[in-house]
UniProtKB/TrEMBL annotation:
It comes from the Eukaryota. GO terms for cellular component: cytoplasm. Coiled coil: none annotated. InterPro entries: Fungal_SecMetab_SDRs, SDR_fam. It holds the Pfam family adh_short. One of its GO terms (molecular function) is oxidoreductase activity. This is Short-chain dehydrogenase/reductase SDR.
Length: 318
């Protein structure tokens, strides 16, 4: 006989006064329990004061809690800086592969010691994503904004944008897909309970926002030049995955909007080898691009979920 289970996602699930905890099955940031155990747990929660409404059981952080994945340099680092400087009450979780080597993040930590939380997260290692989610849950209990900023276009001797079909290699395709598409969707997966708990609380938005940095070259409808197979395909995959999640969260009526952002061509390490043919006036500073993107994020409505925006607010065709 198959016994049904109930998923408990209460923010204090680890503190639930349930006996026989060894019989529970953990699933992400929740517990799968039998109906009888769930009823008993809820009764004890009422007695212990843990059974509160969702609005009171999660801390309402004034200014909100934002997370930037890929924050050690470039656009990600600039997001961290502007989020801290523009919102005097907001908290920022900055993640990167090697926090000890992220000197610019350390400088920001010295300036904003109480409001900046730095964690290790490697998008190619799901264990580090899970550990980051657990750290955020323990410290803040919720998130109001997730920015997936990490991405790769080229690595000397390893990955180069393909100008012709005969230069396409499986290793390049797989690496670009892993970092640019698989990584962000796994981060969304593990941060989703925190975003759902946070919603728009502490901010001027009605919903929490997931902003995934994509690229115009990932648009199939806008592709007229071809080339760059690995990068284009990985960003197209990111677009589809983000759209999928937006549909699911909308169906669940979760207070989370998922959007895609094209930052323009920005003067960063990623674009530097390919800036020669950028038209005058189209190479943006990090400060300008992030300012524009934050304006879009801060004005995101629930009905914007699943949309793909350029830096100037114009929608990009899929």
């Amino acid at each position: 006989m198959i016994h049904p289970f109930i998923l408990i996602t209460h923010p204090n699930y680890q503190s639930l006064p349930i006996s026989s905890m060894n019989t529970l099955v953990r699933s992400g940031g929740a517990w799968l329990v039998s109906p009888s155990m769930a009823v008993a747990a809820l009764r004890r929660m009422r007695v212990s004061g843990l059974a509160t409404s969702s609005s009171s059981s999660v801390p309402n952080w004034k200014g909100g809690v934002s997370m930037v994945q890929g924050a050690s340099r470039g656009i990600g680092l600039e997001f961290v800086r502007q989020l801290l400087e523009n919102n005097k009450n907001g908290y920022v979780v900055a993640t990167c592969r090697n926090p000890k080597e992220a000197t610019s993040l350390s400088d920001l930590k010295n300036r904003f010691s109480e409001r900046l939380f730095i964690r290790k997260l490697d998008v190619t290692d799901e264990t580090t994503i899970e550990e980051s989610a657990e750290s955020v849950r323990e410290k803040y209990g919720s998130l109001n904004l997730l920015i997936n900023a990490a991405g790769i276009l080229s690595i000397p001797g390893v990955l180069q944008p393909e100008t012709t079909l005969n230069k396409v290699e499986k290793s390049s395709l797989m690496l670009a897909y892993e970092v640019n598409a698989v990584g962000p969707i796994l981060v969304m997966k593990h941060m989703w309970p925190l975003l759902k708990a946070g919603g728009g609380s502490g901010t001027d938005r009605e919903v929490a926002v997931v902003a995934n940095l994509s690229a115009r070259v990932g648009s199939i409808g806008d592709n007229r030049l071809g080339g760059w197979h690995s990068y284009r395909a990985s960003k197209s995959a990111l677009n589809q995955l983000t759209k999928n999640v937006s549909v699911e969260l909308g169906r669940r009526k979760d207070p989370v909007a998922c959007i895609l952002l094209h930052p323009g061509t920005v003067d960063t390490d990623l674009s530097r080898p390919f800036q020669r043919n950028v038209p005058d006036g189209k190479l943006f500073t990090r400060e300008y691009s992030v300012q524009k993107l934050l304006h879009i994020i801060n004005n995101t409505k629930k009905q914007d979920s699943g949309k793909f925006f350029a830096w100037d607010g114009q929608e990009i065709p899929w």
